[in-house]
Design goal:
This protein has 331 residues and is of the alpha/beta class. It contains 15 helices and five strands. 61% of the residues lie in helices and 8% in strands. Strand 4 and strand 5 form a beta hairpin. The radius of gyration is 20 Å and the shape is globular. One of its GO terms (cellular component) is cytoplasm. Keywords: Disulfide bond, Electron transport, Redox-active center, Transport.
Amino acid sequence: MQPRNSRLNSSALRGAVDLAAVKAAGEAAQKAEQARAERARQAAAAEADGVAPQSAYQLVIDVTEETFETEVVQRSTEVPVVIDFWAEWCGPCKQLSPILEGLAEEYAGAFVLAKIDVDANQLIAQQFGIQGIPAVMAVVAGQLVPLFQGAESAANVRKVLDQLILVAEQRFGISGGAVAPAGEAAEAAGPQRPEDPALAAAHDALDAGDLGGAIQAYRNVLADQPGNTEAKLGLAQAELLKRVEGLDLQAVRAAAAADPKDVGTQLQAADLDLVGGHVEDAFGRLVDTVGRTFGEDRDTARLRLLELFEVIGPEDPRVVAARTALARVLF
């Protein structure tokens, strides 16, 4: 695996942060309901035939750059997809992979395990900001959910999976089970609700890399629909991508470490932490910054933290924990 280029750009970041999350989030609840109806139909048919229902797809799959969109992004609108980044030469990977594979069978369709060889799929590894393996992430409704890095015990992995499944159900209405392979459920589900043209224009701008246009388009949607959660998510992600565009990862981190009191540098480092999948590091950095600053600087750090909460989602356990930590330093 080649070293990562420390200079980030919006096209790579969209692969790591967006993953079509804005589009998928708006459709996820509807697709999940359709998938649940199909699972209920399958279960009823199986019960009538006197057999136990089976998962209609493989629980453990090998994913490549060519199959990533279908097997991970599209499938994640129906079931949480857990990604195991590994390599043949990695000793800890050989300890963790059997645990993940065993739990995939044990959970019987509550999630799908996608295995990605980082040597054979370097572009995916770079887009996800993989800095060490084994690394485990998840995609739910097209949205990246970093989980953990390094080998873990089965008990610890089970706790993480339980939390992931809960978040997938509560935030997106997505639960695993015997659903059709990626693409087939959408075909069987029938026509989807028409998308808001203004929201579609914002999504298209984001997909095209027109971050300024996407930001303005999402703001236009929110001006008419202040409670539109899909537009809020899109705006938060587009603004994050715009802020980190062209930043040098190593230079920013070095500057932040050299001067913890430089609020602007801490904000940049937190943005880069989040984009790289280090969600708790990003939150912790900003909570610490709020705790050591006063006046305008404190308010600036606090507001940036709230913006990053929007990117991850209010129900995410890491957001809940960071809100508690923020309250402690504020009060």
